[in-house]
């Protein structure tokens, strides 16, 4: 096999440390002519990826969590350079959604034998977004979970924080603006997703989330008690696994190419797992802007732009919808 050029962008602060991570360059050199870039306080993952791209490397491999992967992707948008992924973070939701295994050997196999796949990305408050942006409960849970707990317990670390947040739910006013309408309601969580695994339940309002349809999917969740919040989460998980849209009155969803979201009071914002300040949030889809090495799969055609888009808003508290002039 002809040796292929690749660059490895490595985040030493990623969630999975140890001998396996230290041997990454050695493993990858079996299949690639490899250049290694290690991120630091002075050199971001995006800067490393830009340097590799300018060197003409056709495959740039991001080794880290969702934040590192998103940062590397930001330097590759709109180019012919492929993004490779080695999931070493806490949630690894981008990899999971693309069918990339969370074990290193399996992920390397995708780099070697996977297929280039063109997917949508998005711009969220000026930052690249591959996965999702979250406001409210999801953002608070991730943001308030200590880093040492994430490294020790992985995704389970979020459960304790999430339960504490559920014990003191504080709904907020939400104003959502799309290309053609304005929406007002009350919520405890708002999520704008390009893609997300089923376990990210607060993003799972519609029947499916596709990173290849040229749209973003927004899910609004409202709850006032712990019991209601838990029941809502279980409903979202079940419908996501079944490929069905959510049906509860306290869940709303719609799709659009662009969203502007403001809240009262201001809420924390999370973009691809990174805290980025507070609302307002502006997210715009970048159709087919990124090529990733993904697991081979059966080709499922994306719906044409004229296809009917799922939407459900009825039942949300204090709901007001008006068309834009």
TrEMBL record:
Sequence segments annotated as region (Disordered): 301-325
Membrane-crossing segments per the record: none
A molecular function (GO) term: ATP binding
Keywords noted in UniProt: Kinase, Transferase
Gene3D superfamilies tied to this protein: 2.60.200.40, Probable inorganic polyphosphate/atp-NAD kinase, domain 1
The protein's name in its UniProt record: Lipid kinase
Native species: Sorangium cellulosum
GO CC field: cytosol
Ranges of Basic and acidic residues composition bias in the record: 309-325
InterPro entries: ATP-NAD_kinase_N, Diacylglycerol/lipid_kinase, Diacylglycerol_kinase_cat_dom, Methylgl_synth, NAD/diacylglycerol_kinase_sf, YegS/DAGK_C
Residue stretches making up the DAGKc domain: 1-128
PROSITE patterns reported in the protein's UniProt record: DAGK (PS50146)
NCBIfam families per record: PRK00861.1, YegS/Rv2252/BmrU family lipid kinase
């Amino acid at each position: 096999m002809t040796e292929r050029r690749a660059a490895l962008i490595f985040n030493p602060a990623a969630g999975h440390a140890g001998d396996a991570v230290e041997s990454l360059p050695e493993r990858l050199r079996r299949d690639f002519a490899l250049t290694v870039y290690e991120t630091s306080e002075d050199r971001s993952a995006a800067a490393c990826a830009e340097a590799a791209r300018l060197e003409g490397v056709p495959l740039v491999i991001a080794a880290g969590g969702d934040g590192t992967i998103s940062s590397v992707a930001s330097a590759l948008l709109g180019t012919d350079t492929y993004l490779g992924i080695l999931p070493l973070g806490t949630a690894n939701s981008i990899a999971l959604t693309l069918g990339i295994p969370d074990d290193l050997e399996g992920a390397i196999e995708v780099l070697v034998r996977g297929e280039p796949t063109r997917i949508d990305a998005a711009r969220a408050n000026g930052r690249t977004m591959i996965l999702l942006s979250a406001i409210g409960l999801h953002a608070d849970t991730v943001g308030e979970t200590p880093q040492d707990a994430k490294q020790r317990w992985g995704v389970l670390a979020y459960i304790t924080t999430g339960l504490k947040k559920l014990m003191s739910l504080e709904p907020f006013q939400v104003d959502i603006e799309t290309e053609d309408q304005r929406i007002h309601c009350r919520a405890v969580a708002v999520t704008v997703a390009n893609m997300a695994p089923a376990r990210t339940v607060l993003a799972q309002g519609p029947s499916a989330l596709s990173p290849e349809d040229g749209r973003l999917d927004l899910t609004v969740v409202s709850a006032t008690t712990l019991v209601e919040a838990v029941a809502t989460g279980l409903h979202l998980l079940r419908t996501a696994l079944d490929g069905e849209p959510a049906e509860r009155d306290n869940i709303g969803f719609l799709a659009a190419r662009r969203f502007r979201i403001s809240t009262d009071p201001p809420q924390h914002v999370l973009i691809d797992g990174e805290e980025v300040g507070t609302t307002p949030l502006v997210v715009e889809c970048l159709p087919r802007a990124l090529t990733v090495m993904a697991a081979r799969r059966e080709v499922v055609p994306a719906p044409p732009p004229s296809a009917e888009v799922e939407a459900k808003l009825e039942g949300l508290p204090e709901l007001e919808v008006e068309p834009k002039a």
